[in-house]
Write a structure and sequence with these properties.
Elements (H helix, E strand, L loop, with lengths): L1 E14 L3 E14 L3 E5 L6 H9 L6 E6 L2 E5 L4 E2 L7 E4 L11 H11 L4 H14 L15 H13 L5 E5 L7 H18 L2 E6 L2 H7 L2 E6 L2 E6 L1 H6 L4 H6 L4 E8 L2 E4 L18 E6 L4 E4 L4 E10 L4 E7 L2 E7 L10 E6 L3 E3 L7 H9 L1
Bound molecules: adenosine-5'-diphosphate and magnesium ion.
Length: about 375
Amino acid sequence: MHQIILKNVSKKFTTKTLGSVTAVDHFNLSVEEGECFSFLGPSGCGKTTTLRMIAGFEDLSEGEIYLGGKPVSIKEKNIYIPPEERGLGMVFQAFAVWPHMNVFENVAFPLKVKKVNKSEIKRLTQIVLRHTNLEGLEGVYPSELSGGQQQRIALARAIVTSPRILLLDEPLSNLDPKLRESMRFEIKELQKKFNFTILFVTHDQSEAMALSHRMLVMDMGRIIQVDTPANLYNKPVNRFVHNFLGQSSFLRVEIRDGKAYPKGDLSQELPCNTEKATRPEMLLAVRPNEIHLNRLKGYRTKIEKRMILTDNIEYFVRIGDQTLKIETPHRIEFQQGEPCCVDLIHSIWYEDDGIDLEAERNKRQLI
Ligand code: ADP
Ligand code: MG
């Protein structure tokens, strides 16, 4: 069954400074029961607004939302179900714990609001505290706990009423990197235990890839691509998605007689297939870890610069008039200035439309 359905959902905001902004633009989405689905995109692209409309905190300008098969927001028919009746659990970016309540009271609060009886509150709260590793901390106040523990309280409170759907809006962004990683696994474990449908919003690509069955990349209110993490990484539909997920370099390339030459050097071919190059000038997208740096085969150049990192070495080489970044394991070692060959293991062609949307994107962040 589809647990979450959005049909043609749009949201326009009108602000004094910028006039009308379409924060969410004809958004269509179906999320399966038990699926962990992530929203990925730059700041200001409409992730939070979409989640707030699903939660019922934000009115729709247009469209329909169904949760668990029931209509909850239908603009045309004036249907609107309030957040507390939508069967959702939510965790938002800022630690939303109440400082004047101890851990038990914080987590039990939604049950109290629902007027569940006292012994049942105790039983359900204890179960959730156990699953979120907060057992033994019942009487402690949030200010005495770490950021990670506080975020666990918010998570425990979101799931104590056994919602079918969990909305998580950048719940880990205030935590340090190590803690983020362990919390990701905890969320994944909780999902396996309770089989929630999760909508997870993040601007952190590796977080989304680690947690999701499927995810979408959006830009300026529009969905650009929906797919599995692997497909989004390996088969991005455009340059924006390629650049957003993982590291990318874009080489400007000229195509002559079916051969590819880097801009600024028509003396040497690039080792790539040109069948899918549709124009005389194209962009060739390559990832730093999909390049074979060697001494025998490929485009001949030399090491311009190198940087030794913990897990790999970063090399910068000249390709025509451009610089290409390459990442290799430590065992592939070249010195600065040493001649080398660059073989491209995997690359994708994009047409350079010359349109730069960066200014429009930045404007959205400022509002
Ligand atoms: P994200 O969560 O992806 O960073 P948001 O959904 O918060 O993006 O914002 C999307 C766009 O809508 C931005 O341009 C933002 O400034 C605008 N926006 C969000 N909320 C409001 C509001 N209450 N009033 C006016 N503009 C808003
Ligand atoms: Mg947001």
